[in-house]
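Lab manual, section 2.4: Encoding a predicted structure.

Procedure: take the sequence of the chain (192 residues), apply the prediction step described in section 2.3, and record the output as structure tokens. A sample record is shown.
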Amino acid sequence: MTCCAAAPLEWNRRAIMAPIMKQSELEAVERKKEAFWGFLAAREKKLFNFLRKALNFSEDSADLFQEVVLRAWKYFPSYDRQRDFSVWIFAIAHNEIKKYFTQSRKERAVIPLAQLVQEPAAPAADPDIALIHDAAQRLPARQREIFFLFYYNRFSVAEVAAICGLRQGNVKFILNRGREAVRCALEVKNEK
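Recorded output:
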């Protein structure tokens, strides 16, 4: 059966007309597509790096990035242009991260240490930054996410709160806990 936009389709012995998009509708869809990809292009690298860090450089971060983009595209018509696009898409990423960890917790299996193969991380230009980065990677998931949103992605406390769905006071508390943990880890390394 061939389908033409104006030809009637047979379905359950009833003829129905295939939908025809008007030129103005096609142009509106094209404008929407251009606006979405334009907004995303400016934040794509930051978003991907945020997901990689939140998932502790897991290979699943690329898949999660695709899920975030798909979900953002799906809900782009409901995006309020008065809000900051970065906060909106990072909030979607935050929700996808939560969903990922909830699902992975259910699917998590014990892997023998002999099977684990770790690739060494690329050395940072500044050894102090490398130490801070290594210490931050060992933070619990929520602290690590907020730590990297604030310091690496340079979001304000208010923006981090909007992304994570927390109050600003909670974000400050979690940041302080994360900073304290990183400071303690650095002191232990300096003592050795």
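Check your result against the sample. The first helix runs from residue 23 to 41.
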